[in-house]
Amino acid sequence: MKKDILVTGVQPTGPMHIGNYVGTVRNLVNLQNAFRGRCLVFVADYHSLSEDYDPKKKQEQVLMLAAELLAAGLDPKKVTLYVQSDVPEVTELAWIFNTLTPISFLERMTQFKDKAERQRSNINVGLFDYPVLQAADILLPKATTVPVGADQVQHVELSRDVARFFNRKYGETFPEPKALLTETPRVMSLADPSKKMSKSVPGSFISICDSPEEIKKKMRSAVTDVGPKEEGMIPPFANGRMSPGVTNLMTLLREFGTSEDARRVEAAYRDGSIRYVDLKDLIAARIAEHFVDFRKKRASLLKNPAKVRSVLKRGGSRVRTMTRATMTEVRKKTGLR
Ligand code: ADP
Ligand code: TRP
């Protein structure tokens, strides 16, 4: 029987935040045991070049992200962890996919529109073509399952389109992959709860390596309601609805607090006896507790970068070996050789 393949990537653009963790990484830690097939997780360094960055820092960011994925619980015996640029065939496949992808499909991508808005002086072709490279990441190993946060669903859908375009033109080759979401696929920004939490937006996130003091400070600054002062009581439900900021806090409490915490807070919220600052401090304490072990493992891995590098190197060569036949098949079918 054919085994399923799972693949996902994270960009090395800064320390991982609680949105990445709740939206994808924690799920990967469970899936590495539960998924019936191979799990591939990679550091998307090619993708990260499309944003403004300092080349001198890139290697450090790659290593840090790999150390964080391991410290969060990924086991290299169960998951193949690799760096995207160690499998340069993805760029070759992305080029072939470029020739199949209508420009109009990329023009619809909301991430491109957001990023172009954010980095107006660097709206490069890579930023636009980003989802096609992502399709190559997914289809090269013939993946069927792609665990991601809600922001990436549109990209996974594009990779399904690309698979279909290829299969139609050159014959059945790639399966159509599906996105796999968690219960909380979108954690919102602390600074603006109408936008997603993102590494590239300062003030929007809490890193999972932050110290308890930093977490508390960032949590206290989270935007909740427009209206009463932060020190005040949280007003009870207006028409049974919470503001986006409070909803986001409740989500974080559900993810990191105990069920008793959630019950107590919900009840206090309903009768108007809870203060913002208490809710924020409780969540901050729970997040800090949740990552105690992570912080220790991360620090120890960062002291031993050679160990992390060897995991990545092994992973990269494994993926190259497993995808060699696909590239030969693609080259033949497209008439390249
Ligand atoms: P960022 O946008 O913060 O740079 P990445 O692009 O590296 O994060 O995303 C890595 C993974 O984390 C992807 O699967 C993405 O969908 C998920 N993710 C990113 N931000 C969030 C969020 N705010 N909530 C839930 N999942 C998220
Ligand atoms: N685009 C993804 C993000 O910004 C990262 C990524 C690159 C990815 N290639 C991928 C995710 C392939 C899943 C599969 O989060």
Automatic annotation (TrEMBL):
Keyword Iron-sulfur included in the entry's annotation: no
Which GO terms of type biological process are on file? tryptophanyl-tRNA aminoacylation
Per UniProt, which keywords does this protein have?
Aminoacyl-tRNA synthetase, ATP-binding, Cytoplasm, Ligase, Nucleotide-binding, Protein biosynthesis
Describe, as the record does, how this protein assembles with itself and its partners.
Answer: Homodimer.
Family the UniProt entry places it in: Belongs to the class-I aminoacyl-tRNA synthetase family.
Intracellular or extracellular location(s): Cytoplasm
* Predominant localisation class: cytoplasm
The task this protein performs is described as:
Catalyzes the attachment of tryptophan to tRNA(Trp).
Q: Which reaction does it catalyse?
A: tRNA(Trp) + L-tryptophan + ATP = L-tryptophyl-tRNA(Trp) + AMP + diphosphate + H(+)
- What is the protein's species of origin? Candidatus Uhrbacteria bacterium RIFCSPHIGHO2_02_FULL_57_19
Specify whether Ribosomal protein is a keyword of the entry.
no
What Gene Ontology cellular-component terms does the record carry?
cytoplasm
User: Which CDD domains does the record associate with it?
Assistant: TrpRS_core (cd00806)
Identify this protein by name: Tryptophan--tRNA ligase
> Where do the annotations place ATP binding?
11-13, 19-20, 149-151, 187, 196-200
Q: What InterPro entries would the database entry show?
A: aa-tRNA-synth_I_CS, aa-tRNA-synth_Ic, Rossmann-like_a/b/a_fold, Trp-tRNA-ligase, Trp-tRNA-ligase_bac-type, Trp-tRNA_synthetase
Q: Which gene is the coding source of this polypeptide chain?
A: trpS
* UniProt motif ('KMSKS' region) ranges: 196-200
> Where do the annotations place L-tryptophan binding?
137
Q: What class of enzyme is it?
A: ligase
- EC? 6.1.1.2
**Do you know which SUPFAM superfamilies this protein is assigned to?**
Nucleotidylyl transferase
State the Gene Ontology terms under molecular function: ATP binding; tryptophan-tRNA ligase activity
